[in-house]
Amino acid sequence: MSVAMAQQRIRIVVAKPGLDGHDRGAKVVARALRDAGFEVIYTGLHQTPEMIVNAAIQEDADAIGLSILSGAHMTLFPRVMELLRERRAGDIVVFAGGIIPEGDIAPLKAAGISEIFTPGTSLEAIVTWVRDHVRPRGVPA
Amino acid sequence: MSNDERRKDFTTLSGLPVKRLYRSADLADVDYDRDLGAPGGYPFTRGIHPAMYRSRLWTMRQFAGFGAPEDTNRRFHYLLEHGQTGLSVAFDMPTLMGRDADHPLALGEVGREGVAVSSLADMEVLLRGLPLDRTTTSMTINAPANVVLAMYVVAAEKAGFPRQALGGTAQTDMLKEFIAQKEWIVPPQPSMRLIQDMLVFGTRELPRWNVISISGYHIREAGATAVQELAFTLADGIAYVQAGIDAGLEVDAFAPRLSFFFDCHVDFFEEVAKFRAARRMWARIMRERFGAKDPRSWWLRFHTQTAGVSLTAQQPMNNVVRTTLQALAAVLGGTQSLHTNSLDETYALPTEEAVRLALRTQQIIAHETGVADTVDPLGGAFFVESLTNTMESAAGAYIRRIDELGGMVRAVEAGYPQREIAEASYAFQQQLERREKVIVGVNEFVVPEEQPIPILRIDPQVERRQIERLREVRTNRDARRVEQTLAALRQATEQGDNTMERVIDCVKAYATLGEICDVFRAVYGEYREPAII
User: Does residue A21 contact residue B183 with C-beta atoms inside 8 Å?
Assistant: First the structure.
């Protein structure tokens, strides 16, 4: 299968958990992923972890991109991971970005977040990471 | 000397073309009296006061708010002790959305990005011991601004400060929330209706209060260009002035108490030109479009915050330099008050040390550099005047487009400014990727390993303690009075009466923020944004 065909099948839910309205980053990343050939579903703002996990399952997503800038990441990111496992969707790849202090990255990765992108990350770096790490669910990476 | 240039095109941060040299011919159309005027004289391009900072420096107003009300109250006392001259309250996300600390949507958010205020009890702690008759308080609160203003008035009155003595601002700018900041409760039209209630109440009851702070800051931070920030902010202002007139107020009765709030980004001259153009445009809008006669209605008075979005997580000490340049542009642009960001804000809310350095930055500009000793020192510079004209004409074109769409409320409902901003922010990010724009330490001059800096940690116990206090409030209050005042508010809302005094009754009865906002949610419905990417 060509790279382009594999990419077309990859579906990514970009989501804003929590209450902050800082959506510039989420939207720019969503658009860059779309321009790079992925199918992108943007949830809009003010999503609970439950809403995000529901959206990902309904949309048959292969990956979820979370963005948060309010400081609630240590509560909300692990909650998303917990719900995914409860719903037997723990194989959905989750990556995240936002205002996330260095010291929080290791515990978030331990909770199951595959990658954390901090401010200043280039779109190219995010797109490349997704290409390298996300496969259609059920297909071994 | 070679005539070759470093680049093919030179543009401002917002993409406006910049020529090699500006000359008197570039100002051929400028009429000094008509377009600049003396400082303190129409159209106020050179400043709203004749002597500007020679008579009074700008207000140094650092935005602060985190954790429990006790934490923020302590930070306010600290800032006043270090020479800050005004207060500015940041509320946490649940408060901004009109939700109590124990609401499921508040999970993990309580006290994180501002102070948590769920009831009058929290507001009383927040304001404890502060000289509310001598300092002015700015509150960044919008969707539930009516409730939080009511809490402020009631808490101040209980502490012995009459409402006539209270000076400050509640932001109350919902249009920019729908456009950019995205903390809302009810849809745009009922939001405007509640703002009308506040305009009428503020005009009659709070003679020293600025009823709306029309804000471009969040619009810019969401990715808008300087031109878009200027245009959308003034278009929002036009909508509020019209709303006040439609509510039966004389324009000169409330327009002098509208203030503005702008971003100051890092493109130095573009920002100075933006502020100068803003003053001139607003003066003309108020006099020519609305027929205002009081010169104070023509004044565009504004607060500035340096651009949070320009700060970098990489080599964070560089942020001190960025903030200094931005603060200088704001001062040369004639700001009335200023917040300087702290170097650590791409990681967390600032530490006390970082905030003090940010405040010291302003004090150095004010007291050491001499830039505050003459009025509008950049006025008359060929480039600055030319760029001021360019900003005005580009922003004017946007305002005409918004008028054609039926005004800003309609434009927001149609998603017009939201789409324009999304386009601009994506285009800018692509310029960064191509290195057409340079951010030092991010896409150029990168270092591989960096030393971590100290950051502020919010105690995770804050959320639990806030929820406990809220439960205590609910247990100790007179439940029947709460029920009655909420029912009276619901009735006033349904009948279209002014809701402000009813909100005050609810607050006095210790009805919570969430309970009061639930009344508006029940009557008007909740806003849901169409997701635009």
Answer: yes
| Interface check B313 vs A, CB under 8 A | yes
**What span, in angstroms and rounded, lies between the C-alpha atoms of B304 and B5?**
34
Residues 6+ apart with CB under 8 A from B327: B264, B306, B338, B340, B361, B362, B365
pLDDT for A1 equals 47
Closest residue to B104, CB basis, from A28, A48, A72: A48
Element (H, E) at B194: helix B188-205
| A111 lies within 8 A of chain B by CB | no
Q: What pTM was computed for the model?
A: 0.94
Q: What is the mean pLDDT of residues B447-468?
A: 88
Burial of B82 (0-12, 13-18, 19+ CB in 10 A): middle
Does residue A107 belong to the interface with chain B, where contact is any CB pair within 8 Å?
Answer: no
* Closest chain B residue to A48, measured at CA: B105
Q: What is the pLDDT of residue A8?
A: 54
Q: What is the CATH number of the domain that holds B303?
A: 3.20.20.240
Residues of A in Cβ contact (< 8 Å) with B528: 44
* DSSP conformational letter for B287: I
Largest CA distance in chain A: 41
Q: Does the ipTM surpass 0.90? A: no
Task: Spell out where B69-203 has E strands.
Answer: 87-90, 137-140, 168-170
Q: What residues in A contact B100, CB-CB < 8 Å?
A: none
CATH homologous superfamily of A3-133? Cobalamin-binding domain (3.40.50.280)
Q: Go through chain B and tell me how many residues it has.
A: 533
Residue B472 lies in a domain: no
The structural domain count of chain B equals 1
Residues 359-378 of B with CB under 8 A from A: none
pLDDT at B405: 98
CB contact under 8 A, A75 and B533: no
Contacts for B123 with CB less than 8 Å, ≥ 6 apart: B69, B117, B148, B151, B152, B154, B155
Residues B379, B39: Cα–Cα separation, whole Å: 10
Provide the residue range defining the domain that includes B48: 24-60+171-433
CB B90 within 8 A of CB B65: yes
Q: At which residue do the structure tokens 């692990």 appear?
A: A78
Partner-chain contact A99 B97, CB within 8 Å: no
- What is the C-alpha to C-alpha distance for residues B494 and B490, in angstroms, rounded to an integer? 6
pLDDT in tens, B137-173: 999 999 999 999 999 999 999 999 999 999 999 999 9
Distance CA(A49)–CA(B519), nearest Å, equals 26
Closest CA to B347 of B323, B310, B313, B306: B313
DSSP state of B195: H
* Cβ contact B313:B346 at 8 Å: yes
